[in-house]
Write a structure and sequence with these properties.
The protein folds into two domains: 23-170, PurM-like, N-terminal domain (60s Ribosomal Protein L30, Chain: A), CATH 3.30.1330.10; 178-341, Alpha-Beta Complex (Phosphoribosyl-aminoimidazole Synthetase, Chain A, domain 2), CATH 3.90.650.10. It is built from nine helices and 13 strands. The chain has helices at residues 30-44, 60-66, 89-102, 123-140, 195-203, 221-230, 244-256, 271-280, 302-310; strands at 69-77, 83-84, 87-88, 106-118, 143-152, 160-170, 186-189, 236-239, 259-263, 293-297, 319-325, 330-333, 339-341. The longest helix is centred in the middle third of the chain and has 18 residues, at 123-140. The chain is globular. The protein starts with 29 loop residues before the first helix and ends in a 13-residue tail after the last strand. The relative contact order is 0.15.
Length: 354
């Protein structure tokens, strides 16, 4: 039989007909092959005819043409619930990894996807998460090229955990880092703070709260493209995920041995998020975000960067919120003219938010 005959195994499209995940889907046998080819490869590559290898093989020429260094990151996602207003674990896994690369100044390119599945997980739930990953990867312009799947007995995990790794290429002459910060530098964010943490809190349904708050889950690589296009000498960038804005700024201050002063009246916080925080005694400056970056730029470039950020859909509500100072702490100047210190978070306001 010719090697590329339609009836060869690699030309027959496998289908995942099971309704729930079983231990057999992690055994290496036919059920696992149905899962890999009938769902994962079909969603991420759209071509199940190619011979599947245990690794992705990526030409170096593409990296060399775009930059001079590789950027590499990994992350794991255990968010509860799996689906929440504004996103889900699949979309979150892609966007979170895209953003970790983007704020380093890198162009995200290739990703891995490893799944830990609990026996009994609904295949329909898994399919929605995987389809969301594929859609998010397309929007961000990255490819999911390899991965792994494991199944654990019921009760040994919580439905679905996702691990990703991402590779990108660093642009020539763009190296944002905390050590670059200088007194006078402007601090900017690209919109409202704390929405993801608040959305997860409401979605869990533990406090009988009702709100239309949605997560800000989104890729930031396009926004970073706009920033570095007008300011390649950007000092530092971070995505404000766990621990929120206050945690990122404390990392800035500690790493650079300078202080940062914020203007309370300049902080973009939605009224609904502020209301939930006041009700529960939380601080929105410490709530997680999944589509917000904090960027520090030289003072003379601040307005130009602000205009560039506002020109992008992910940054229409961008604003300048503070500046780097000589003093080594993070402070908030209130509307009454007083100052309070924003220290590092003690404990965890909300676990499993990503």
């Amino acid at each position: 039989m010719p090697p590329h005959s339609p009836s060869t195994p690699h030309q027959q499209k496998r289908r995942l007909r099971d309704k729930t995940i079983t231990l057999a889907h992690g055994s290496g046998g036919s059920a696992m092959q149905d899962l890999i080819e009938g769902l994962l490869v079909d969603a991420f590559q759209g071509d199940t005819s190619a011979v599947l290898e245990d690794q992705a093989r990526i030409p170096l020429a593409e990296f060399i043409a775009r930059g001079d260094r590789l950027a590499f990151t990994t992350d794991s996602y255990v968010v509860d619930p799996l689906f929440f207003p504004g996103g889900n674990i699949g979309e979150l896994a892609v966007n979170g990894t895209v953003n970790d690369l983007a704020v380093s100044g890198a162009i995200p390119l290739y990703f891995t996807c490893s799944l830990i599945l609990e026996e009994g997980l609904s295949v329909a739930t898994l399919r929605l998460a995987i389809e969301s990953m594929a859609a998010a990867a397309k929007v961000a312009g990255v490819q999911i090229v390899t991965g792994d799947t494991k199944v654990v007995p019921k009760g040994k995990a919580d439905k679905l955990f996702v691990n990703t790794a991402g590779i990108g290429v660093m642009r020539h002459g763009v190296t944002p880092a905390i050590g670059n910060l200088q007194p006078g530098d402007a601090i900017l964010v690209n919109g409202s703070l704390g929405n993801h943490g608040a959305a997860i809190l409401v979605a869990r349904g533990e406090l009988s709260l009702e709100s239309e708050i949605e997560s800000d889950c989104q890729p930031l690589n396009g926004l970073v493209d706009e920033i570095v296009a007008v300011c390649p000498q950007v000092r530092a960038m971070r995505d404000a995920t766990r621990g929120g804005l206050a945690t990122v700024l404390n990392e800035f201050a500690d790493g650079a041995a300078y202080g940062i002063q914020l203007e309370e009246e300049a902080l973009p916080i939605d009224g609904a998020v502020q209301g939930i925080c006041e009700l529960l005694g939380l601080d929105p400056l410490y709530l997680a975000n999944e589509g917000k970056l904090v960027v520090a730029v030289p003072p003379d470039d601040a307005e130009r960067v602000l205009a560039a950020m506002r020109s992008h859909p992910a940054g229409t509500d961008s604003c300048i919120i503070g500046r780097v100072t000589h003093h080594g702490s993070v402070t908030l100047k209130t509307a009454f003219g007083t100052e309070r210190v924003l220290d590092r978070l003690v404990g965890d306001q909300l676990p499993r938010i990503c």
